[in-house]
Please model this.
Amino acid sequence: VEVLAQCREEGLVTAIGVSNYTPEQLRRARRVAPISACQAPFNLIWRAAEKALIPECRKLGVKFVGYGVLAEGILCRETAFGKDFPQGDHRRKGWLFASENSDCIKDFLSQMNGIRSVSDPGLDQFAIRWALQRDGVDAVLAGARRLGQATRNKLGERAVISSERLQQAGTLGVPLSRLWTGRSHYFGEHH
Model:
């Protein structure tokens, strides 16, 4: 952060953002330089940022940007959970895709499909809209490997979904907290 603060003073950058910081790391960084944004993983399955990071961002006036809003493709219509990913794809070893988590996540996806109305957009757009309407979330990053995915992601920003269904979706995601309990980071290999 010290180097970025120097770059800001020299006019080389206009704003400083950080990624995957804890609330304490964010407070320390703010003592060195003004921090404009903090990004961390955030989606219906991984909601650890709601406990402390998002509230700290709000308290400090730092924009919160959630990334991984589609849970590495689990919340996409094009990526089926349990899919055998190609060699080199980091999801092959990711804990979200570990066999011990599959029943819990498949049950969650089934329940999500149960609360969505036929007039609602796809699960991917639903997940993006859900994240954007959460208190303290200023923006989300949704990955895309193809133009069609990027187009669908953009439509998720403006998707019209009843507040009741968005609230139900948030409630469904809470029991998945057992998947991330004790994990300090979204990524990582399963053993």
The beta strands are 17-19, 37-41, 63-67, 139-141. Helices lie at 2-9, 23-32, 53-60, 99-115, 123-132, 147-158, 163-173, 177-180. The longest helix spans residues 99-115.
